[in-house]
Structures are given as structure tokens and as C-alpha cells.
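My current task is to audit a protein record that another person submitted. My question to you is simply how this chain folds and whether the C-alpha cells agree. This is what I was given:
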Amino acid sequence: MNTNPFYEEDVLLEEEVKDTELRDLIVFNDDINTFDHVIETLIDVCGHSPHQAEQCTILIHYKGKCSVKNGDFETLAPMRNDICRRGISAEIL
């Protein structure tokens, strides 16, 4: 270490760059799954309250899709996979 007060040292910092862009987890309507199944899935997978899950399910039914959660890709990907494993169509946009 240099004790000269006018000495400047360049330091190269390497940081891991993470995707911090917020995305939406979208669930799509279908003619296969029941309201109860979708509501139960949103409660289990996304941590929704029963009321919130019911409201999202109504929007999915009448609008064709609904953003059920937002966050970074790393957070949403396991949720999307779990929703799809339960036979419900979902994407991260």
C-alpha cells in the first residue's frame, strides 16, 4: 500500500449482473381446468389469499388471461413451472 496522499490506485471490481427487470407471470384461460383448481393453484404456488386467487381466476375466465404475480425471472420461473405441471397454461412476459 502506498502512503503517498496523492497516489490513486485503480481497482477493478467484478460484479455478477442479475436480471432485475420486473416481469409478469401470466395465466391463460382454457376450457379444461375448473375455477376451484385454478384458485387452489394460485393459493399454493403464488401465495395468494383465497379472495385474491378468486379475483384472478374470474379475470382469467372473462379476459382470457391475468397477470397473477410480478417479479424477476428467477423468482417467477419456478412458479410458472409448477403452474404448468398442474395443467394450467402460464408464461413469463
